[in-house]
Structure formats: C-alpha cells, structure tokens
Design brief:
The structure is a single chain. Helix content is 29%, strand content 20%. Helix 1 links the parallel strand 1 and strand 2. The strands form three sheets. It has a five-stranded mixed sheet with strand order 3-2-1-11-12, covered by helices on one side. It is of the alpha/beta class. It has seven helices and twelve strands. The chain starts with a strand and ends in a 7-residue tail after the last strand. It has a single domain, classed as 4-Layer Sandwich (Purple Acid Phosphatase, chain A, domain 2), CATH 3.60.21. Bound molecules: manganese (II) ion. The site of manganese (II) ion has 7 residues, from helix 3. Manganese (II) ion binds next to helix 3.
C-alpha cells in the first residue's frame, strides 16, 4: 500500500527536513507534499526549493512563497537599496533567486486534492469551495486564514482579542479531510475533519509530517494517519 506524506512549514530548515524524511521511512511509490512556506524566515530557502524539485516533492503555495515573489518584483523596480529593508535570510534569497526559481514559485497551486484528502496552506471558510475558479481574494485567504471572530468573519493574525474559533473547528468536511500548515501550534492541531501540522520548526519547535495510507482505488484512509516529528536544531528565525 502506498502512502501520501504531507510536510509542515519547512521555512528553509533543510537539515531538519532531511532528518524527518529519513524518519518517515518512505516507500518508492509514496507521494510527498509540502504544505507551503518551505522557504523564508529560516536559513536554506533556495536549497530547500532545489531539494523539493530534485526529490519530486510537490508543494502548494504558502504566504511566504507569495511574499518572496512580491519582494522580488519590487526589488527589480527599486534596485539594491530595497534589499536593506529586508531581514537577513530574505535579503539572501532575493539577491540570489533566479528567473526559473521565481517561475516555479509562481506555478505553485493554492490547493491539492488527492481523492478525499485536501492540502491547503492556511485554511478555508465554512463556505469556501475549492475549484479552478477561485478568485484572488479567496486565494489570498487560503494562504492566510487562522481565526474567525464571533460573527464568523476572518480576522488578522494579530487580532488576539477578536479570536473566537480557529477555522478548522468550524469546518465540517465539505472539501474532504484537510491537512494544513501556517499557524504554528506546540502540537499538531487535530480536529474531526482536519489536522494542522505546523509545529514551528523555524522558531525552535518541531518539524512534523503526516502519513496516510492510500487504498488501491485511490481513496485515502484519513482516519489512519501517523504523525512523525523531529526537533528543531535551534531557533532559526532571522
Ligand atoms: Mn504561512
């Protein structure tokens, strides 16, 4: 039986990612997917991008891939002085990224579906439909969603007082079982129809993978998953 393995936010923590892949004990037919935010904040962004491509690891787009695309376009207009406004690792990535690498980032999808399993970076609202017609606002929301307020409106990450429910606590499964990243939890966030697997590796937490067996007919055994983690070597954020 083959497996689908989804990895949480790597943020350039390539050493931990390699360790985690070993621990997952991959079989040749297994499908591997990054939940997005594989780059930025941490040390080895472009190396991680190459590593994903070299190892046929799929990815969706996270808000940090979107941010790098945006910063690079502005850098082309404003020139070298714009680099000085960036964090250390961001500056490094923007000054080294190639046109082809940028094209790859721009080609990343906003979600991936494997039969009854869906992967998104941030989350979806109770009424979001994931199809090829999603508009730009929905795309942005999918990469950023965290908490909703009492009126069930999505709120910015730093509106701590407005927090009522995390999106996954309201999700009833209309888009299948969802694996997501983006919001770092101390332990994976397990709800009835979803699991959040960002455990904050770049901030010195853990890097987590989730592994699902896949039946011969392609259906994913969403109740039979295993969570596998490795500890961060240190707090890498810079
Ligand atoms: Mn993110």
């Amino acid at each position: 039986m083959k497996n689908i393995v989804v990895y949480g936010d790597i943020h350039g923590c390539l050493d931990e990612f390699k360790q985690l892949r070993k621990k997952v004990k991959l079989k040749p037919d297994d499908i591997e997917v990054s939940v997005g935010d594989f780059l930025n904040k941490g040390p080895k962004s472009l190396e991680t991008l190459h590593y994903l491509l070299d190892n046929n690891i799929l990815s969706i787009i996270g808000n940090n891939e979107a941010k790098i695309i945006k910063l690079y376009k502005r850098y082309l207009i404003e020139g070298e002085k714009y680099l000085d406004t960036m964090r250390v690792h961001e500056k490094d990535t923007i000054s080294k990224i190639t046109k082809n690498e940028l094209k790859y980032l721009e080609s990343l999808p906003y979600f991936l579906k494997f039969a009854n399993l869906t992967v998104v970076h941030g989350g979806i609202m109770p009424d979001t439909v994931l199809d090829d017609n999603i508009d730009n606002n929905t795309k942005k929301q999918i990469t950023l969603l965290r908490y909703l307020n009492k009126d069930l409106v999505a709120i910015p990450w730093d509106d701590f007082e407005g927090r009522y429910k995390f999106w996954s606590e309201l999700y009833k499964g209309h888009e299948g079982f969802i694996v997501f990243g983006h919001h770092p939890f101390d332990e994976p966030k397990i709800d009835e129809f979803s699991v959040g697997i960002d455990t904050g590796c770049v901030y010195g937490g853990k890097l987590t993978a989730i592994k699902f067996p896949v039946k011969k007919n392609g259906k994913v055994k969403t109740k039979k998953y295993k969570l596998i983690s490795v500890d961060a070597q240190k707090n890498h954020w810079n």
